[in-house]
Write a structure and sequence with these properties.
With 134 residues, the protein is mainly β. It has 1 helix and 11 strands. The strands form 2 sheets. Strands 3, 4, 6, 7, 10 and 11 form a 6-stranded mixed beta sheet that branches. It has a 5-stranded antiparallel beta sheet with strand order 2-1-5-9-8.
Length: 134
Amino acid sequence: MASFTLTNFGSVFTFPACSFIFRSDMSGIYNFTIEQGITFIKTVTWKDIDGSPIDMTGMEAKCAIRTRDGVAIAEPSCMVNGVAGEIVIGLTHISTAELDFGTAVYDLDILQGGVPIKRLLRGTVTLCKDILDV
């Protein structure tokens, strides 16, 4: 089993494996909110049962946000820090300003050689709309 640590602008939230309904053969579940017009950055750290980061050297990550019907909404950037087991997921304030949905779904996949080898996380995304523009 593994656990995940999520960091959002300096705040660190560590969730044990059970919080993600995680098994080694299944993805974890984590739901989050994106604020429209605000830069979105989340850092996910993949750790083993002992709390040590899983080395992702040579791996890539891909995140996709879609409607429940599968229509593409956004593909946040993903940067992998292999030895630290970290994935930094981000959308610029310009990208989040253009988003227009209520609730959507996402997947965060790990790839090796361009081939998906593990769905690390999945869940729902809620867009908190900018009230100044509503």
